[in-house]
Design a protein that fits this description.
This protein has about 425 residues and is an alpha/beta fold. It is built from ten helices and 25 strands. The strands form eight sheets. It has a six-stranded mixed beta sheet. Strands 13-12-11-17 form a four-stranded parallel beta sheet. The N and C termini lie far apart (about 65 Å). The protein binds flavin-adenine dinucleotide.
Length: about 425
């Protein structure tokens, strides 16, 4: 019988594993709870109306249509039964496997305060991006109708919690929207007076970058009009704003970019987990004691890898490819290979012509870093049509500051004051 390979999750790790198995004599089943592969690095662009969803998401079926050894199933894996080698889906259906690749990624963590989620959505899925976009653009609408200046100020205060790459990108974009995109569109207030506050518990923005680049990023954010609060811990969030110890920020729009936890699927295997719920894997990405199960991407934790593998798209792709190669080797009776992350650099954008980039010892910022960021993101987008659409939208936005996807749910209700 042809070996059955089941891949759960078709993000970067899962997709690159499936593609790398295209010539392998195996039957592949790819399961995902969405019908699309999502380019998460540009999700903040959908949340801030710079791009429409189809520019950064592609139907999984279309991507894998020509790969005859793949069947795509739309479904959610509920648990993995390693003893009987089955994955149980949301309707109770069991999928038997000979080899399993788990690639379900990560989700938001509110550090034990799940009650904050309703007031401060995170940014992981397209749904999250739509919710944030709605909140941002409707906040300006509410401000135009509000007569009480204190309440209006709360509608015009935007707080982004967490100054990693996503938080920095969000804060920079929100400042650009207020300063440029909406300029001249309101009669009762000036959108340029909107306040964007970026809050970070550590003492610098972009903690994975070197201190000199963190400082460059902070300066670029402040030049855009973002207020950066460092070394400040959030102690409470409700519908009216954010508590930071003794300080209070009255704000109607709060975005959570602070914590990451592994997909809960990992906990169903009954194997040891690392901090954040990630599955501890052997050097060849297999689960200890279960050589038929491999874990890739944000869900995997390799304790022996130095420096630690970062939770980024290139790492997930590289793991996906290696997991596929190791399956082919194992089926042919050859030894498997250990995973080594190849780091080609890190890029974070802050706004128009503003970014920082780290390629080993080479550090760049400003226009050059932004151009490198732009080129890399267009190059790595899945689908030629998407690349073209993004290029055109960005070129237009560059000259006009317009954001092409500002239409929000017309049925959206006014939020409680
Ligand atoms: C907003 C944001 C910005 C980012 N920016 C960057 C960046 O600029 N550069 C960079 O390198 N990295 C960036 N990252 C990180 C990068 O996107 C992740 O490291 C990468 O996506 C991890 O790949 P993965 O395959 O592990 O998981 P993902 O790409 O998250 O894919 C997981 C897949 O599993 C599916 N899934 C989850 N649970 C189930 C289940 N139970 N059953 C079935 N399917 C399931 C999901 O629908 C999804 O398709 C960013 C992440 C986010 C959220």
């Amino acid at each position: 019988m042809t070996p059955r390979v089941v891949i759960i999750g078709c993000g970067f790790g899962g997709l690159f594993a499936a593609r790398a198995l295209r010539r392998a004599p195996v039957d592949i089943t790819v399961v995902d709870r969405t019908n699309h592969h999502l380019f998460q690095p540009l999700l903040y662009q959908v949340a801030t109306a710079g791009l429409a969803a189809p520019a950064i998401a592609e139907p999984i079926r279309r991507i894998l249509a020509r790969q005859r050894n793949v069947t795509v199933l739309y479904g959610e894996a509920q648990r993995v039964d390693v003893a009987s080698r089955q994955v149980v889906l949301e309707n109770g259906e069991a999928l038997a496997y000979d080899r399993l690749i788990l690639a379900t990624g990560a989700t938001d963590s509110y550090f034990g305060h799940d009650e904050w989620r309703a007031h401060a959505p995170g940014l992981k899925t397209l749904e999250d991006a739509f919710e944030i976009r709605k909140r941002v653009f409707l906040a300006f609408e509410h401000a135009e109708r509000e007569v009480d200046p204190v309440k209006r100020a709360a509608w015009l205060t935007f707080v982004v919690i967490g100054a990693g790459a996503t938080g920095v990108e969000m804060a920079g974009m929100l400042a650009e929207i207020a300063r440029h995109t909406l300029r001249g569109e309101f009669r009762r207030f000036d959108p340029r007076n909107a306040r964007v506050v970026l809050v970070e518990a550590m003492d610098r923005v972009l903690p994975p970058y070197t201190p000199d680049l963190s400082e460059r990023a902070r300066l670029q954010l402040e030049r855009l009009g973002v207020t950066v609060w460092l070394g400040r811990k959030v102690t409470g969030i409700n519908a009216q704003g954010v508590q930071l110890g003794g300080d209070r920020l009255e704000a109607k729009t709060v975005v959570w970019c602070a914590g990451v936890a592994a997909s809960p699927l990992g906990a169903t295997l009954g194997v040891p987990l690392a901090r954040g719920g990630r599955i501890i894997v052997e050097p060849d990405l297999t689960v200890p004691g279960h050589p038929d199960v491999q874990v890739v991407g944000d869900l995997a934790f390799q304790p022996d890898h130095q420096p630690p593998v970062p939770g980024v798209a290139p790492a997930a792709k590289q793991m996906g490819r290696l997991a596929a190669r190791n399956i082919v080797s194992a089926l042919a009776g050859r030894p498997t290979r250990p995973f080594r992350y190849s780091d080609y650099g890190q890029l974070a954008t802050i706004g128009r012509s503003k970014a920082v980039a780290m390629f080993g010892r080479i550090h760049v910022w400003g226009w050059l870093a932004w151009f490198a960021w732009l080129t890399a993101h267009i190059y790595f987008l899945i689908g030629f049509r998407n690349r073209l659409v993004v290029l055109i939208d960005w070129a237009w936005a560059y000259w006009t500051f317009e954001r092409s996807a500002r239409i929000v749910d017309l049925g959206a209700r006014r939020r409680d004051d």
